[in-house]
Amino acid sequence: MRAPTLPCVSCALAALASLALAGAAPAEADLGSEPDPFAIAAPTATPGAAPASARGIRVVVDAPAPGAAVEARDHMVELRGTAVAAGSGPQHFDVLIALDVSHSTRYPSGADVDGDGVLGENPAEGLYAPGEFSEDTVCTDPEDTILAAEVAAARALLRSLSPERARVGLVAFSGEVDPDTGTQRSRDQRNATLEVPLTSDFARVEGALGRVLARGPHGATDFSAGIRLATTELAGLSGAASAPRRDAQKVMLLLTDGHPTFPIGQASVEDAGDLEAAVNAAKLARAGGIRINTYALGQNALGRPVAATEVARVTLGSFTPVLEPGTIVAALQSVSFANVEDVAVVNLTLREDTPDVRLNPDGSFQAFVPVREGRNRVLVNALASDGSEANVELAFEFRLAQAEGRMRERELAELRQINTELLRQLEAERVKREKRRIRVQKEIEIRAAEP
Q: What is the pLDDT of residues 378-393, one digit of tens each?
């Protein structure tokens, strides 16, 4: 919900199968002595107040408070909390976004990034009148380019992070090319720029992203320069503009539409030295306790993803192939810094799961839970990346309010739009969800048949 996420209904039902709702903590329930999980009963844990843990993950519900009286204009209650995986280290995060701004990012992303209803495309691949676009135009809408998609993804990521827990910085990398030789203009040129150091002032990062987009794509691709500069900032090495923070997890997110072509040789060729330089820079990052998650955008990057995969492997990070560059907005929001795979929310009173769940990269989550008037029992289930689970249950009273501001409606609409995009783009996850639904129905039928 990871920053928006698909609801893990199967996780929630697995939790129900292990929950004893009388006399024992949820994670330690004895299935053989378990009463009907849908029967109205008082929650046994200290719901919402104290963390519930199970085999390496814990869940804390911040709101609503246990036993609270909640009012809303519709039958929907906002639930907020945090899931934390054991062994994931400190729960503060320093995140450095490294954007590839090379010349090739001027091509279409395949998505209507700016939302103007017009999809940018390469004029050479469409039906356009002669002279309608200049010969050097490769995207009919400059705000739908791969670079625009990268910037949009970074902005969406910012919206999913809390400045109280995360600092974010921005590095842009490319590589100036000598037009006569096709190599670097000079041996000591800097192929990466620190756009903004690590900061909790996300407005500064927003401004820097705007400036990167305004400058536009240029140059070749130097992975090593981007990784080294980002490592300097995250590790607080000599010359860093960012103050080091020992209690923070250090994460680099590297977005690229290609493969390294600098610092060695021709800008149009990936030399063995370019790969070696990128991997050596990644080893330095690993020594500094930095994990690098790489995102390869489009056919060019996926055709030869050796550098992107090796950089991720060396630093124990993740490699994410993004076939359609425009989908990077959704892909980047699914990243997890807290080693939390999924969060599911089920209203036990209604026997209804919650589709509108947002899991943010730092493990915080937000859900809009369907409710009925009166008492509602809600189960929150979290799944860690290692497969361990945790549950917390809470009960509250709900009644309809006469009026409510528009802010919650906007948040819900935004969340639903993001989730809809994910569901549309991740076909594999849709299949998983259908399988979950079948398992849920089977579980309900089994329990309904029990005496």
A: 999 999 888 888 999 9
The rounded distance, in Å, linking the Cα atoms of 348 and 369 is 11
| Residue 417: predicted pLDDT | 61
Looking up residue 160, the CATH number of its domain turns out to be 3.40.50.410
State the helix-helix crossing angle for 272-287 and 223-235, rounded to 10 degrees.
10
| Range of the structural domain that residue 383 is part of | 9-88+338-449
- Burial class, 12, CB count within 10 angstroms (exposed 0-12 / middle 13-18 / buried 19+): buried
Residue 16 or residue 318, greater confidence: 318
Give residue 409's pLDDT: 61
pTM: 0.75
Q: Which residue, among 191, 159, 162, has the nearest Cα to 174 in the 3D structure?
A: 191
Tell whether 314 and 369 lie within a shared domain: no
Looking at the structure, tell me whether residues 220 and 302 fall in a common domain.
yes
Give domain status of residue 267, yes or no.
Answer: yes
Q: Is the pLDDT of residue 421 over 80?
A: no
- Paired residues of 321 in beta bridges: 296
For the record, the structure tokens of 223 come out as 């992975």
Total domain count for the chain? 2
pLDDT band of 94, cuts 50, 70, 90: very high
DSSP 152-194: HHHHHHHHHS-TTTEEEEEEEE---B-TTTSSBS-TT---EEE
Is the distance from CB of 93 to CB of 248 less than 8 angstroms? yes
Cα gap 204→250, rounded to integer Å: 20
Q: State whether 237 and 146 are in the same domain.
A: yes
Q: Same domain for 355 and 414?
A: yes
Q: Is residue 160 part of a domain?
A: yes
For residue 226, what are the contacts with CB-CB under 8 A and spacing of at least 6? Answer: 98, 100, 171, 172, 173, 191, 192, 254
What is the distance in angstroms between the CA of the first residue and the CA of the last residue of the chain? Answer: 38
Give the burial class of 247: count Cβ atoms within 10 A of its Cβ; 0-12 exposed, 13-18 middle, 19 or more buried.
Answer: exposed
Residues 103 and 252 in one domain: yes
Answer yes or no: do 30 and 166 share one domain.
no
Angle 407-425/427-449 helices, nearest 10 degrees?
A: 110
- Edge-to-edge strands, sheet with 357-359: 52-53, 57-63, 76-85, 364-370, 357-359
Note whether residue 1 is domain-resident. Answer: no
Percent of the chain with pLDDT over 70: 76
Q: Which helix (H) or strand (E) element contains residue 151? A: helix 146-160
